[in-house]
UniProtKB/TrEMBL annotation:
Pfam families: Pirin, Pirin_C. Residues 62-140 form the Pirin N-terminal domain. This is Pirin family protein. Belongs to the pirin family.
Length: 334
């Protein structure tokens, strides 16, 4: 069985990925009670490098936020962001006029395409108790033919996402198909929108002291299993600790034996795009000239500008989960 393992590697920040994925980060922050402005008590901000606070202090980080944690407006071009919020909430605003508050299991799928600005802030909505946040952000590449598609914003609400309950495991099917259960449609121009690309995003939770078999695939794809929480697991004769990634042979079933704590995994899989990749910060293109063009265009147009009052825009404190689309459609959840 251990011959199914192609590589084992430590999880840094960001996590190592394989084509067609570009980037993956895991945020786990144990935020304190919020104030009326949806941020931490200002006294708790002392001693932090505000604007670039990526070091865990007191169990949490402010990232690029000054008063509210998160990522004020910034541009993207040439790929997609998939944001999975397991705990807590994220406030989205973008240059298309789209906005949303999502969390507690919701997923946002955004195609940056030819260019978009957005902000992702983490409002501390609870004033009487702590505000834990757990999320993944995944960057999925776009092929050259789709680098300049129109930007697209989509919400996958947690109550609509398939969750498969097996004897010893629970599998949340965010993208792809699991044993015949199909995920919701991704954004229309996504690499994941074509079933032949076998793009899979599964969040897998396996009970303690049990076995779970990850089913094989039938085509040549890259497949990476991220073990982000739990105690030591075994795959064949290999013992693997949490905070490690495992590149797997896609043609083999993989049986995982868990330790005395529930094990949590993220699986990313897909057919490689296999094109040149040139990255510069938030831009991912195929050539250096395309990167220069992106920087120049952003400098001139700001990808449509910023229609919101603040770079770190957040929504009303009493607002529930919602999605406002660029065409004015509003979907509100309880």
């Amino acid at each position: 069985m251990s011959d199914a393992i192609l590589q084992i590697f430590p999880l840094g920040f960001p996590w190592q990925t394989q084509d067609p994925f570009l980037f993956c980060v895991y945020h786990l922050d144990h935020y304190p009670k919020g104030n009326e402005q949806m941020g931490p008590d200002p006294l708790l901000l002392e001693g932090r490098s505000l604007g670039n606070d990526f070091t865990i202090k007191d169990g949490w980080r402010m990232y690029h936020g000054q008063t509210i944690p998160g990522f004020p407006y910034h541009p993207h071009r040439g790929f997609e962001t998939i944001t999975i919020v397991n705990k807590g909430f994220c406030d989205h605003s973008d240059s298309l006029g789209a906005a949303g508050r999502f969390g507690d299991g919701d997923v946002q799928w955004m195609t940056a395409g030819r260019g978009v600005q957005h902000s992702e802030m983490f409002p501390l909505l609870n004033t009487e108790k702590d505000n834990p946040l757990e999320l993944f952000q995944i960057w999925l590449n776009l092929p050259k033919a789709d680098k300049f598609v129109e930007p697209h914003f989509k919400m996958l609400w947690h109550e609509d996402i398939p969750i498969i309950q097996e004897e010893n495991a629970q599998i949340k099917v965010i993208a792809g198909s699991y044993k015949g259960t199909q995920a919701n449609d991704p954004a229309p121009n996504s690499w994941a929108a074509k079933t032949e690309n076998e793009v899979v995003i599964w969040n897998i939770h396996v009970d303690a002291n049990s076995k779970y078999t990850l089913p094989r695939t039938n085509s040549l794809v890259t497949r990476t299993l991220y073990f982000y929480e739990g105690s030591e697991i075994e795959i064949g004769d290999k013992k693997i600790h949490p905070d490690f990634g495992i590149a797997l042979d896609p043609f083999q079933n993989v049986t995982i034996t868990t330790g005395n704590v529930k094990a949590h995994f993220l699986l990313l899989q897909g057919k490689s795009i296999d094109e040149p990749i040139v990255k510069h910060g938030p831009f991912v293109m195929n050539t250096q000239q395309e990167i220069r063009d992106a920087m120049k265009e952003y400098g001139l147009t700001q990808f449509g500008g910023w229609p919101w009052p603040y770079p770190d825009n957040v929504h009303d404190k009493d607002k529930g989960r919602f999605a406002l689309y660029p065409d004015g459609r509003l979907i509100e959840k309880e």
